[in-house]
Amino acid sequence: xxxxxxxxxxxxxxxxxxxxxxxxxxxxxxxxxxxxxxxxxxxxxxxxxxxxxxxxxxxxxxxxxxxxxxxxxxxxxxxxxxxxxxxxxxxxxxxxxxxxxxxxxxxxxxxxxxxxxx
Length: 118
Fold this sequence. Notes:
Blueprint: E1 19-24, E2 34-35, E3 40-45, E4 51-53, E5 61-67, E6 73-76, E7 82-83, E8 92-94, E9 98-104, E10 109-117
Parallel strand pairs: 1-3, 2-4, 3-5, 4-6, 7-10
Antiparallel strand pairs: 5-9, 6-8, 9-10
C-alpha cells in the first residue's frame, strides 16, 4: 500500500490518476456514446461503429483512452467542442490496439498526442 498525500502524490513523486477498465463502447452518435469520466480509460468491448465520448474539455485536462477490443471505435467530444482540426461535435476514429492521449488547452478543444499501437 502506498501512502498518498492530499495532492494525490505517492511516495516516489508519482501522480496517481483515476482509472476505468472494462469499458464498453455504446451507440454510434455523440448523444448515445459511452461517457468517459476517468483520466485513464480502457475500452475492451466495441462492436463495429460504436463510440465513446470525452468529458467537457477543461483547460489543463489530460486523458488517455486505450482500445483493447478487436474493432476501431469513434471518440466524440462533448457538444460544441472539437478534437484536433475537426469541426465541433465531430468524432475521430481510434484503431484497435491504440492508446491515445487527449489534452485540453481550452474549454472547447481537445488535441490528440502521440498515438501508440500494440
